[in-house]
Design goal:
Layout lengths: L2 H10 L2 H10 L4 H11 L1 H4 L3 E6 L2 E4 L6 E8 L20 H8 L3 E8 L7 H11 L4 E7 L4 E2 L12 E10 L6 H7 L6 H10 L4 H9 L14 H20 L8 E8 L2 E8 L4 E8 L13 E7 L12 H17 L4 E8 L10 H11 L4 E3 L2 H11 L4 H7 L1 H8 L3 H10 L1
Parallel strand pairs: 4-7, 10-12
Antiparallel strand pairs: 1-5, 2-3, 3-4, 5-7, 6-7, 8-9, 8-13, 9-12, 10-11
Helix pairs in contact: 1-2, 1-3, 8-9, 8-10, 9-10, 10-11, 11-12, 14-15
Length: about 425
């Protein structure tokens, strides 16, 4: 069905059928924008929006340090915290996630990244990021809202955007764990990130606190674009975990973890040896990063024992997954060589954010592992769980290639046992 015909069908369909039509063709951004424009029509023609913000904010990165900041809120009231809590989305479908997040309107206010301590809007952004619970928020538009569906694999999708010059929030009670870090103007941002992590503050809330300029040395605080804050927090925590993991003994056997989520197949190996890490992503045709391709596109990023200096080729997903695997190794009190193989199938028709990688790698590692004892078992396990052939994984994965070309798994086992 061509796009014009689909749009006509969408416009003429009863409301109850519109979402199912869109989800069948979710990879088409034009259809998505049309659907949400129709769905949010009352807001598009309103001078304001009022609802319960899930204490969510968005800090843009374009034209940095001249940026757009603002709250995220839906036109509904009550406990909306689920809209900004990706740690609770594991069991939701892409359709559920997109439907849920499409309710959120992003407010856009022009400021400078360094203006954290100046202005009413900037102050209210901080208050919202500090809030413990959903809070009633009102935005008065200066321009008509417009539909934007962010299509990247790092930030969560949302529906409308609108420029404003002021917004209002009810009196809010602050999350005391985050407030403590906010008032500690002598602590570096990295220190505060780790302290919040140790206080069991969800990763998403720590990222928001960093983005809102709540953390770091008082004189150096600034707004951090949402996309950057996500990777910064993942990387900071992963490096801290790894500093402990490297002091542990090497794992004594191959652990294989397998999981399927959101039509992504995850296969994770912990292999005897000193820390190395590689994440390999295979995107099938008709997925967002390979929409017009005829062949599977495979990308990878690697680091050795001493880490890497350049930003990972596969982006924020690399650091999100690294956080999850270092958490697992730390809990096991072991170190290992880690390989992540990810097949992204056609059902993953729209990216929903880097949380997908962090939470589903965590979920995969919560499963009981299969214990393997040889190289042939490892490659046999790959072939039994994944569609892509071993030769293609070996071609695109440095660590698998090295296992074939340099030494066998028994050499790794011997190296582990002899220190």
């Amino acid at each position: 069905m061509d796009r014009n015909r689909m749009i006509k069908e969408l416009e003429n369909a009863p409301k109850i059928k519109r979402s199912s039509i869109v989800y069948q063709h979710m990879k088409d951004p034009a259809l998505l924008r049309l659907y949400y424009k129709m769905k949010m029509f009352p807001i598009l023609n309103s001078p304001e929006i009022i609802g319960s913000s899930p204490t969510d904010i968005f800090i843009g990165r374009h034209n940095y340090p001249n940026i757009q900041i603002g709250p995220m809120l839906p036109p509904e009231f009550g406990d909306t915290s689920i809209l900004a809590a990706p740690e609770k989305w594991r069991n939701l479908s892409i359709e559920n996630i997109v439907e849920m997040r499409s309710k959120l309107l992003r407010g856009m206010y022009q400021t400078k990244a360094t203006n954290v301590e100046t202005g009413k809007v900037e102050e209210r952004i901080r208050d919202l990021a500090l809030a413990e619970k959903s809070t009633i928020t009102q935005i008065d538009f200066i321009k008509r809202p417009f539909v934007t569906i962010p299509l990247n694999d790092e930030v969560q999708p949302f529906g409308l955007s609108a420029k404003f010059d002021d917004f209002h929030i009810d009196n809010v009670a602050s999350d005391k764990r985050i407030e403590r870090s906010y008032f500690d103007g002598d602590a570096k941002a990295g220190t505060s990130i780790l302290e919040l992590y140790e206080r069991n503050v969800p990763i998403s809330k720590i990222q928001q606190a960093l983005s809102a300029g709540l953390l770091g040395l008082q004189r150096k605080r600034k707004f951090v674009p949402t996309r950057w804050s996500i990777t910064a927090v993942d990387d900071t925590i992963a490096k801290s975990n790894l500093s402990e993991v490297k002091d542990y003994d090497v794992i004594d056997s191959i652990h294989a973890y397998y999981n399927v989520a959101l039509d992504n197949r995850w296969l994770i190996f912990f292999i005897p040896g000193r820390w190395q890490y590689e994440s390999v992503e295979a995107w099938y045709p008709k997925t967002i990063w390979n929409e017009s391709g005829n062949d599977i596109s495979i990308y990878s990023s690697y680091e050795g024992y001493h880490g890497r200096k350049k930003y990972a080729e596969i982006g924020g997903c690399y650091y999100a997954a690294k956080l999850a695997v270092t958490e697992k190794l730390k809990s096991m009190e072991r170190q290992a060589m880690v390989i992540i193989l990810r097949e992204v199938h056609e059902g993953y028709s729209m990216p929903v954010g880097v949380w997908n990688v962090r939470e589903h790698v965590r979920e995969t590692l919560e499963k009981e592992p299969t214990i393997l004892s040889s190289r042939s078992e490892l490659f046999g396990y790959i072939q039994s769980r994944m569609e892509i052939k071993n030769k293609d994984w070996i071609k695109n994965c440095r660590m698998l290639h090295d296992m074939i070309s340099q030494k066998g798994i028994n050499d790794y086992l011997h190296e582990a046992s002899t220190g």
